[in-house]
Write a structure and sequence with these properties.
The protein is mostly helical and about 325 residues long. The protein has 2 domains: about 20-60, no CATH class; about 105-245 and about 265-315, Tetratricopeptide repeat domain (Serine Threonine Protein Phosphatase 5, Tetratricopeptide repeat), CATH 1.25.40. Helix content is about 55%, strand content about 5%. It is built from 13 helices and 4 strands. The chain has helices spanning about 5-20, 55-80, 120-125, 145-155, 160-175, 180-195, 200-210, 220-230, 235-245, 250-260, 265-275, 285-300, 305-310; strands at about 45, 50-55, 105-110, 115. Helix 5 runs antiparallel to helix 6 and helix 10 (about 250-260) packs antiparallel against helix 11. The longest helix is centred in the first third of the chain and has 27 residues, at about 55-80. The protein starts with a helix and ends in a 9-residue tail after the last helix.
């Protein structure tokens, strides 16, 4: 290659790089967005993390000018997090297949905190003549409501998020000998949610949606639905899709419903079908929902789970 040709290629590549640079408000050097001063006691906008200030006074002075850009960026960051593909559910510790999202598709053992899919649960019950021994610690099932709650509270003491969530459900419904206490239930669900149990945030959302133990607040309900959806709880994702549908935000509704369809939420698939018939979704959107639903079913299905499901709804997993 000649020297002249090499120079031309270098200049072309530099021009291409310059044309493709994205100029944003985010600054790598410590320059105050208000006065332009470098260095100093740098303060960063803790909402958008895009701009820096040399001191708190400059930060306060620039707030009005920065507000709209800040709110827009915060909304963008929130949507990136909200519409990100949710984490996959944990696997059954025996068959190593993903646990179904449907509650009946798995069983929680309050003796040791393990969760088994319905297929493995049924197989274990058949192997011990229906006694229902825990496959891990070989503990017998609790003989009374009192014993069940005692075991559950022991799991709560060691920070078991699933146990904390379940205890909240029992307080909310007044089950297993507990007096109904929805305030206590909300406290437990908040704790379970902070420990990573997404279903707890969904229940808090329902509480605010229906006014169960708290004053009805649609904004707070949606906030907790979003937290649950980010954690992978498909019912919460479906509720958000319905909320966007009611506001005629078709694109956002489709995004939510496509994600929840990937968790085999049948109503989500039907929702996209209705949007397609109304002209708000494309044929490809509907096809994506069907494929996502089928892919999920293929991942969680097994002969053992099908056999269990044939014994009744308590083993149903899809």
């Amino acid at each position: 290659m000649s020297t002249d040709t090499a120079k031309k290629e270098y200049i072309t590549s530099c021009t291409h790089d310059i044309n493709n640079l994205h100029i944003s408000d985010e600054i790598d050097v410590d320059v105050c967005a208000n006065c332009g001063k470098e260095g100093g006691n740098i303060n960063i906008c803790n909402k958008c993390m895009m701009v820096k200030y040399c001191n708190a006074a400059c930060k306060k002075k620039h707030r009005t000018k920065h507000k709209k850009k800040c709110e827009r960026r915060v909304a963008e960051l929130h949507d990136i997090k909200l519409f990100k593909q949710p984490p996959k559910k944990e696997d059954c510790p025996i068959c190593f297949l993903p646990l179904p999202w449907l509650g009946m598709g798995s069983k929680y053992y309050s003796c040791c905190g393990k969760v088994l899919c319905s297929g493995c649960t049924h197989a274990m019950e058949m192997s011990d003549n229906g006694v229902g021994l825990c496959p891990f610690c070989r503990c017998t099932p609790p003989e009374s409501d009192k014993e069940n709650i005692k075991r559950l509270k022991k799991r709560v003491e060691v920070g078991d998020a699933h146990a904390i969530f379940n205890l909240g459900v029992f307080y909310s419904n007044g089950e297993y000998g507990l007096t109904r206490d929805r305030t206590k239930a909300l406290e437990l669900w908040h704790r379970a949610g902070e420990l990573g149990y997404a279903g707890a945030y969904f229940n808090i959302g329902i509480a605010y949606d229906d006014g169960r133990g708290v004053e009805r607040d649609e904004k707070k309900a949606n906030h907790y639905y979003e937290q649950a959806a980010i954690g992978g709880y498909v019912k919460a994702r479906y509720n958000l899709g319905c909320s966007e549908y009611e506001k005629s935000n078709w694109d956002r509704a489709i995004k939510h419903l496509l994600i929840s369809a990937g968790g085999r939420h049948n109503n989500s698939v039907k929702g996209i079908q209705l949007l397609y018939k109304a002209g708000h979704a494309t044929k490809e959107d509907y096809a994506k929902a069907l494929r996502a639903c089928q892919k999920y079913l293929d991942e969680i299905r097994s002969e053992q789970r099908d056999i269990a499901a044939a014994f009744g709804d308590r083993y149903k997993y899809y």
